[in-house]
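Severity: low
Component: inverse-folding endpoint
Summary: output formatting inconsistent between runs
Steps to reproduce: submit the following structure tokens with default settings.
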């Protein structure tokens, strides 16, 4: 995430945003987006990023849904071209977007798998006792794998647990 390329440049009372983003869940039916963009290109990676609340109906925002294997379109690719956003849409302190993102991801990581575990349980019951779950939708099952990727893959989560909970040395140390 720290390698993101989108930029926000201050112009009077506005921010001007340029960038591109993929895998944005639900952007095609959302009004607002939590956006991270570089506000200090000279700062070290994690320090020059700010968080914003972007109104997706703003001129210059293009949201393109991505069709998945399941047939649904849960994600999008977004293009932001000279998007002008009021200065007070900054979320949190300037250049402290990394902390905002980590807080949001922490919540997502702790709640995301609730649905995935339910699907896994249902599909297991459906295999063992088909009559107990006769109408398990194939699209739920297809989504289960994605729960091990979103908000950071299972391997990344294991690294986080090892380093932050167990206090083990970094994997790349
Ligand atoms: C259902 C779903 C919803 C999503 N919604 C959003 C969204 O709304 N907004 C958004 O921004 N993104 C979204 N994403 C994208 C998601 O955040 C990324 O796909 C996820 O963080 C993994 O990053 P990556 O795809 O760059 O994979 P990578 O991090 O590049 O991983 C690729 C492979 O390398 C392995 N790997 C990488 N680093 C390590 C390491 N240090 N040690 C061991 N193995 C490693 C991974 O486990 C994986 O197998 C969504 C993805 C899914 C599946």
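Observed output (run 2 of 3):
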């Amino acid at each position: 995430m720290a390698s993101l390329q989108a930029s926000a440049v201050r112009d009077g009372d506005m921010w001007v945003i340029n960038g591109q983003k993929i895998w944005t869940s639900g952007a095609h039916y959302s009004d607002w987006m939590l956006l991270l963009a570089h506000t200090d290109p000279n700062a070290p990676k994690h320090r020059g990023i700010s968080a914003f609340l972007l109104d997706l109906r703003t001129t210059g925002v293009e949201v393109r849904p991505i069709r998945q294997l399941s047939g649904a379109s849960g994600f999008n690719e977004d293009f932001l071209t000279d998007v002008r956003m009021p200065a007070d849409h900054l979320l949190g302190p300037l250049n402290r977007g990394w902390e905002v993102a980590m807080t949001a991801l922490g919540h997502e990581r702790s709640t995301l798998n609730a649905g995935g575990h339910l699907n896994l349980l249902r599909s297991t019951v459906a295999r063992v006792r088909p009559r107990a779950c006769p109408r398990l939708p194939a699209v739920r099952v297809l989504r289960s794998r994605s729960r091990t990727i979103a908000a950071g893959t299972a391997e990344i989560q294991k690294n986080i647990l090892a380093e932050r909970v167990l206090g083990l040395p970094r994997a790349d140390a």
